[in-house]
């Protein structure tokens, strides 16, 4: 983000500034969400790990394993909302 911000700064200074701050804002929001989750105020629905997969994986066995993990982890949603 910072490299892109530097490249566009002259023509789009406000956009460049926004790019510089984006990661910091995101990280603050994630920390706040984790605090709320610890307090029981919300449930973060996201995988706790990627089981070694990357975005372009074609390993169907890894995808099946990740899917099963998602089903298992999804059971937390029902207990959270009830």
UniProtKB/TrEMBL annotation:
<dbReference type="InterPro" id="IPR045943">
    <property type="entry name" value="DUF6363"/>
</dbReference>
<dbReference type="Pfam" id="PF19890">
    <property type="entry name" value="DUF6363"/>
</dbReference>
<feature type="domain" description="DUF6363">
    <location>
        <begin position="12"/>
        <end position="76"/>
    </location>
</feature>
<protein>
    <submittedName>
        <fullName>Patatin family protein</fullName>
    </submittedName>
</protein>
